[in-house]
Amino acid sequence: MRVSQASLKIGELATGQDLTLPIFSIKAENVSAPSVYIQANVHGAEVQGNAVIYQLMQLLEGYTLCGDITLVPLANPLGINQKSGEFTLGRFDPITGVNWNREYLDHNIDIAAWYQEHLALSDGELIAAFRSSLLEFCQQRLNSEWGITTGHQQAVILQSMAHRADIVIDLHTGPKSCKHLYCPEYDANAASYFSIPYTLLIPNDFGGAMDESVFYPWWQLSEYIKSKGRDMPIPVSAFTLELGSQENIHLEDAEVDAKGILAYLSERGVIAEKVKPEKMPRYACYLKDYKKYHSPLGGMVEYLAEVGEPLPAGKPLVNILRLDLYGSEKALTSLKLQQDCVPILHFASASVYQGTELYKVMTNVFEI
Amino acid sequence: MRVSQASLKIGELATGQDLTLPIFSIKAENVSAPSVYIQANVHGAEVQGNAVIYQLMQLLEGYTLCGDITLVPLANPLGINQKSGEFTLGRFDPITGVNWNREYLDHNIDIAAWYQEHLALSDGELIAAFRSSLLEFCQQRLNSEWGITTGHQQAVILQSMAHRADIVIDLHTGPKSCKHLYCPEYDANAASYFSIPYTLLIPNDFGGAMDESVFYPWWQLSEYIKSKGRDMPIPVSAFTLELGSQENIHLEDAEVDAKGILAYLSERGVIAEKVKPEKMPRYACYLKDYKKYHSPLGGMVEYLAEVGEPLPAGKPLVNILRLDLYGSEKALTSLKLQQDCVPILHFASASVYQGTELYKVMTNVFEI
Amino acid sequence: MRVSQASLKIGELATGQDLTLPIFSIKAENVSAPSVYIQANVHGAEVQGNAVIYQLMQLLEGYTLCGDITLVPLANPLGINQKSGEFTLGRFDPITGVNWNREYLDHNIDIAAWYQEHLALSDGELIAAFRSSLLEFCQQRLNSEWGITTGHQQAVILQSMAHRADIVIDLHTGPKSCKHLYCPEYDANAASYFSIPYTLLIPNDFGGAMDESVFYPWWQLSEYIKSKGRDMPIPVSAFTLELGSQENIHLEDAEVDAKGILAYLSERGVIAEKVKPEKMPRYACYLKDYKKYHSPLGGMVEYLAEVGEPLPAGKPLVNILRLDLYGSEKALTSLKLQQDCVPILHFASASVYQGTELYKVMTNVFEI
Amino acid sequence: MRVSQASLKIGELATGQDLTLPIFSIKAENVSAPSVYIQANVHGAEVQGNAVIYQLMQLLEGYTLCGDITLVPLANPLGINQKSGEFTLGRFDPITGVNWNREYLDHNIDIAAWYQEHLALSDGELIAAFRSSLLEFCQQRLNSEWGITTGHQQAVILQSMAHRADIVIDLHTGPKSCKHLYCPEYDANAASYFSIPYTLLIPNDFGGAMDESVFYPWWQLSEYIKSKGRDMPIPVSAFTLELGSQENIHLEDAEVDAKGILAYLSERGVIAEKVKPEKMPRYACYLKDYKKYHSPLGGMVEYLAEVGEPLPAGKPLVNILRLDLYGSEKALTSLKLQQDCVPILHFASASVYQGTELYKVMTNVFEI
Predict the structure, then answer these.
(1) Total domains present in chain A
(2) Could you tell me one molecular function GO term of this UniProt entry (chains A, B, C, D) (predicted)?
(3) Chain C residues in contact with D78 (beta carbon < 8 A)
């Protein structure tokens, strides 16, 4: 097996220098399985995905590849290199404020019209034609007469690579976070393969992220033709893996997640050998039950609730310290929820404004 | 006439200090005209609206008020006080990246159901009931069990004040900009009163800004009951005035715009005296013809096209200087458009990435 | 014992709102011991000192005070409230880039001339006169005809409060750090009382920080009059305590450090009761042996060396992951030092430019 | 004449990409005159120097070169590409806050010892030896065992290039500024050649900027050997040209400044042809009379005093608008100076904290 490397230009800086991505390709000798696209670090501070790609490339040396794999680490050079103080300010475009993970193209396809033109095709032909259309829409967007924003250009170039693959994995992290997976409801069984204890089952909808931008048009097509009496399973899978906390590189832990990805790829036949998923309890909730809790007051925050550990109703999430109120009972306030939950991630800083998102918690959690 | 001042808390900082707004109220002795709400500086660097409010309050001393006026300058204390280098980083929340002017509540009202409950009411009662509902939805949002983000809380508090008024004016500026007005299509004649040469006629739709958040539910209601055979004009007016460039205070020019607002208020009967609008040519285009032009390359920018001056097709917008390409013909590139336009604003910095929004231009401009 | 609270204005924001500090004062009934000044959070992200002040005020309820104590938590409201992304950008003035802890006044006193004027005074009178002079210089700086910068004004107001005290404690933290103490060489024995394992013995010099700004003029005076044959011990003590990592509030750990401060205050007679210092091994090195290690290359960083744990020569500090070099031996580089050290702190982010300060390490460490 | 271009690596980004500078060299056929080094854009937003280098390179095509010229535009790629909101945050390192123009090496040479070793040399040999020593010190700094910071590395690489030249010109701009020149007192007559109306005569001292880092060691050497009875004029000249306002590219104006530089180079024999300096009144003051005026209050700022225009005592610099104080006389405050001055530059933003540097003004101005 041979990893080949290329460099792709996705923008230009003010100094004229190119913004480029490293792209790694591993080709199957005889393709018999889905193709795979994996990217990491679209948010600048979420670096652990690079370590997972590193470990995965190393691990893959020992397996027989039956589908092509494309890997794009360091997928947002502008965001990764943008420091502000000691940290990486990589969550949004520093000029526009737009979240780098909300820049993907919503194709807004008129499915009925599209299908009317293509209904004579066989399933295989239909899939190829639809994929071509998706790529063409991306290309049109990139060639817009009025230009395209920095972030949208980067995202649509990434999206074009993703559209060429059957399996798409986008590697992120939370701020201070346990591992969790965004998995579309139609593909829920995939959650049993990754080395990830918590899964968010997301609707088959476009919310703006990479995974959604990839599977949503296919889901639309599938639903539409089902309404016309034709049954065709959705031919692409797309997931976002949240690998723990941002601003953290941990090579050993990266191997754990690389093996989880390997187990999923094995299940899908991308590698010939059988790789078993890690044995671990796995839990899930629906996205509607994934709640953001915002601080009802400003102050200094002691985070008490551990991410990834169930928290019974009435147990404190945080203490808010307000020294300006010393001497009153408001000097120290414990914040609690009225219902059981599993805290999945919390804010990165130990001081907050009123309204800062303190925690994201799963409620109505069930085992899967 | 007496201006009364109050302070409204709209948040808390990490140190515990309150974020507050100054609110000025001027009450009519006998109310016979619409009430007015004017705010400024929701984007931190767009300070000129404060000067306009200052001049307007001074001018109003000389007139007879027939409707109540509420004025909220410095409407975004967090954004105004957030410096980054020598400039104000006040366009978006520094934590989330969300544009401060996209935080208003989309009520998402089920108009059919609401009207079903209220159809027996007279027009006056219907308006009062609908206003109450809007305020109630805002209040529910502010009291959400899971809290509310810093920016959303600030916006919905402002929006609640705006919902109480019949005329809403939101004072903004562009980056480097000529004066222009966002005016909903249903209210197009209002554009003849302000001291503003260029008008964008916007659809009667929710795009997320203050003006839209105010008029859109009323437009929905009006359309719906028209479909039921009942005719009721939209009882609120809402505009965004773009007062030129950001990071600029100019008191004399502020008086010009204060007089324009006065002319509009006079037309609406809010002041008893007749104030004539400034005589000036006024132009407009539809929002769909308002184009963003993104730089096709990175580099240093010489802005050539004057804002507010018609630019024939083929005349250069900018020169892009690329010293890294000195010696080639790409060292200096003139960028041109293929169609006539009026440049309305351009980017604030003289260096750009590929994809930076260089200019916004009006096309298909017509006199009004 | 009664804690009284006041609010001190130290600046004004662009919106006109005051920047204020909460100040807590605890008065001794009969003063027989030195007075104390403790401040925290001069760097915006270094919040744990507030928790220590909170715990210390609570603990002090149980002791008999023989000297007055002034406590100023949240000492830099501008820095504390300045977020950039999810973190607090509180290390330097966002406009000027000046480190908030390098804004203190260097008095630049002509000691010879000053002493010439005051040599007839007794030791007690001399100390009082010198203190008055220091306060007067601060006041002159604050009243400068040409104004004074935002950061300098804040710092000199804090410094004035510190000059009034005999013992000054400035509470900081590192980025990712173990606890350590900055202690002037002339006061080295104080290091045995705080609950802090590592001490940096700093020269009796002005480097710009609060502690130095307080003790340095006294040390100059003491040295000068010694050269004139008069012996007077330095009557003030000033320390910087680094309480671990920034962006962290931990109340239990804060109690440990509050008790360490209490032990020092007990030793100095500020509280009547005997409080023993924690029994723990304590180590030190001279400031000249405190080394900053800068990354020789850019890349993703896995921090391997634990802060506070001795690291033998040749053991890796970090791995630098360079995915762009995958396939070469440079894809993963271990960085090592040629000498034994104790890593005290490391950079907060997991990605670095070439030249980023990766670690600060103590070398030539000895037990104290 | 042929311009040759090279690319110099001066750092590495977190993604692994090189930070590089474009370097242009123009060689004299027969060297009979001093060599020249010109750099631009060390502060990221100060872009106009690039346009001046562009125009200068074009103009030089028409002249006979008698000394080598090295030109380095875009000298700070990290700073130039660092946007924060719509502006370039390029004044200081975003991680450390250190001003990019205060990173140059202070050689701290023991001149007496150095001269003791070299006193037998002829003037020409002495100059060559001292230059070698300066370069060697730079090299040692770059090779430091503990590494070197990102900004220091960039600066010392630039400084090494500058040390190789006899004439050094550093192109900057102010925030909102008229053109002015930093000129060392020993070289005051040079001020008559550039197209610049205002000159600051700076002491022959190290303040941290490029120009000072270049001439200061030579001035030290010259002074020292003069004290030993040996007279040798300072063999290097170094200037900082402030080309107006930041965030501005203006090619026509750049040509004016390029011609001023050409006039100086002509005077120095670097070009064979005679180029006359622009006829214009030129004024100067000493650096001690260059005053920074800080805002005594926070608020919105209307800048009234034009930069480059003499301002009599008692005339207003600015109006500070304080809407929170509407109704009181403090709603609008005019700030004035008690002495005549020439405002040279003012702050870039229209809102300030208390203590923000509002204006820099020359006092005690004289014609030169």
Answers:
(1) 2
(2) hydrolase activity, acting on ester bonds
(3) 353
